[in-house]
């Protein structure tokens, strides 16, 4: 049997994600899913939309629509894939980089406001713990994506931003 998270930790994380989602809605130039696609493209460089879909756990049609919207707004550009001329790569445009930089700055300011009265040591501890949590969650997600039998699945559909991205069945 795998360990279960402390219910208080889970509750705090759920509340935090909800509050961050509410704060993000205010005057952002891109939606949360669009921001994720821009940030991932910046991190990975040019790539296929299907690879972005896999990386964020969304279905390809949803990702394709979001990529198309970002292309139309001038934040991403499509170019032929040199390894397969039938396929296309997407990459950030200069405008997309500016939008991503501005949105990152806005998010940093938001968190900075929330942590303004925290000591430097507390902020460093939070950053360390969040980094560890992110690494652990990445391991679980990667194992899940590769159908690792040592990782217990969560029963029921997984929904991201109102879209069912994957049906999961218990292991």
Strand content: 15-25%
Round the Cα radius of gyration to an integer and report it.
18 Å
CATH architecture assignment name of the largest domain: Orthogonal Bundle
Give the helix level as a range of percent.
Answer: 55-70%
Determine the number of helices (DSSP H or I, runs of at least 4 residues): 6
The total of beta strands comes to 4
- Shape, principal axes of CA atoms: globular
CATH class wording of the largest domain: Mainly Alpha
Please list the strands of the largest sheet in the order they lie side by side: 1-2
- Unreliable sequence segments: 167-171
Task: Give the full name of the CATH homologous superfamily of the largest domain.
Answer: Winged helix-like DNA-binding domain superfamily/Winged helix DNA-binding domain
Mean pLDDT: 83
CATH topology of the largest domain: Arc Repressor Mutant, subunit A
Biggest sheet features: 2 strands, antiparallel
Following the backbone from N to C, one meets helices and strands in this order, namely: HHHHEEHHEE
The tally of domains stands at: 2
| Global structural class | alpha+beta
What is the CA–CA distance across the termini?
11 Å
């Amino acid at each position: 049997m795998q360990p279960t998270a402390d219910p208080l930790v889970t509750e705090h994380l759920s509340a935090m994600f909800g509050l961050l989602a509410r704060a993000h809605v205010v005057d952002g130039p891109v939606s949360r899913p669009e921001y994720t696609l821009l940030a991932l493209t910046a991190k990975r460089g040019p790539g296929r939309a299907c690879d972005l879909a896999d990386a964020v756990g969304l279905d390809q049609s949803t990702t394709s629509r979001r990529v198309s919207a970002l292309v139309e707004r001038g934040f991403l550009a499509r170019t032929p894939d040199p390894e397969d001329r039938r396929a296309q790569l997407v990459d950030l445009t200069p405008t997309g980089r500016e939008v991503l930089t501005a949105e990152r700055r806005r998010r940093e300011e938001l968190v900075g406001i929330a942590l303004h009265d925290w000591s430097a040591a507390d902020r460093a501890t939070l950053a360390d713990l969040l980094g560890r949590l992110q690494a652990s969650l990445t391991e679980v997600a990667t194992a899940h994506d590769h159908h690792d039998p040592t990782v217990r699945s969560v029963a029921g559909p997984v929904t991201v931003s109102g879209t069912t991205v994957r049906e999961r069945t218990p292991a």
